[in-house]
Amino acid sequence: DAGVTQSPTHLIKTRGQQVTLRCSPKSGHDTVSWYQQALGQGPQFIFQYYEEEERQRGNFPDRFSGHQFPNYSSELNVNALLLGDSALYLCASSIPPQGERGYTFGSGTRLTVV
Amino acid sequence: DQQVKQNSPSLSVQEGRISILNCDYTNSMFDYFLWYKKYPAEGPTFLISISSIKDKNEDGRFTVFLNKSAKHLSLHIVPSQPGDSAVYFCAASEIGTASKLTFGTGTRLQVTL
């Protein structure tokens, strides 16, 4: 049973560019949440998608946007990249009503902005 | 504003002994608490959780204790095994914000032979 799949695993971008990260949830899961983990920090909640809509959002600027597709997969887009956006981006899937108790995390995408 | 704090960045324990990882929080609206374990190059994996209506939850070698008055929780691992060496994150969710977790900064546990 495939867990959460994220792509790519690593990428390097230049300041000012745009990036798209992808996530396929665990089979049977319909909710996708995105987290940013900076070096030496814990993961920080970016937003959550359910039924193709953003349901909750953390304290991140509008440069961070997302999308969920009918097959429940999701994309995270970051525009006008800053050096401070360098981090590990984690995707977690779940299914209500388990919520956070049923989170399955992917291995993440390591983004480096130069 | 760090609402969930893990003040010990690292901990070293001998195999067979007890490991105690601590976590403090400041948000009184947190009602559910979780511990995750993370190995390098992998995503966090759920370990154990506790609701605010309880003060203890056990699962095999892992026990989580919650002291609401002190806004403190701890994870006990007994006995510690070399495979337990990982980074442990404490996380919390708030009433009415289903599935949004606030994480601490993590504690790196090393279990030595």
Give a short synopsis of this structure.
The complex is a heterodimer of chains A (114) and B (113). With 114 residues, chain A is mainly β.
Q: Would you tell me the structural class of the helices and strands of chain B?
A: mainly beta
How many β-strands of chain B, per DSSP? 11
- Write down the secondary-structure element order of chain A: EEEEEEEEEEE
Low-confidence stretches of chain B: none
**What pattern of helices and strands is seen along the backbone of chain B?**
EEEEEEEEEEE
Mean pLDDT of chain A: 93
Identify the overall geometry of chain A: globular
Low-pLDDT runs of chain A: none
Fraction of helical residues of chain A: under 10%
Question: Describe the biggest sheet of chain A?
Answer: 7 strands, mixed
Strand content of chain B: over 45%
Q: Sum up the overall morphology of chain B in one term.
A: globular
Mean pLDDT of chain B: 94
The secondary structure category of chain A is mainly beta
Description:
The complex is a heterodimer of chains A (114) and B (113). Chain A is mainly β and 114 residues long. Helix content of chain A is 0%, strand content 50%. Chain A is built from no helices and 11 strands. In chain A, strands 2, 4, 5, 6, 9, 10 and 11 form a 7-stranded mixed sheet that branches. Chain A has a 4-stranded antiparallel sheet with strand order 1-3-8-7, with no helix packed on it. The radius of gyration of chain A is 13 Å and the shape is globular. Chain B is mostly beta strands. In chain B, 0% of the residues lie in helices and 57% in strands. Chain B has strands at residues 4-5, 10-14, 19-25, 30-38, 45-51, 56-59, 62-67, 72-77, 86-94, 101-103, 107-112. In chain B, the strands form 2 sheets. In chain B, strands 2, 4, 5, 9, 10 and 11 form a 6-stranded mixed sheet that branches. Chain B has a 5-stranded antiparallel sheet with strand order 1-3-8-7-6, with no helix packed on it. The termini of chain B are far apart. In chain B, 35% of the residues are buried. The interface between A and B is medium-sized, with 27 and 25 residues.
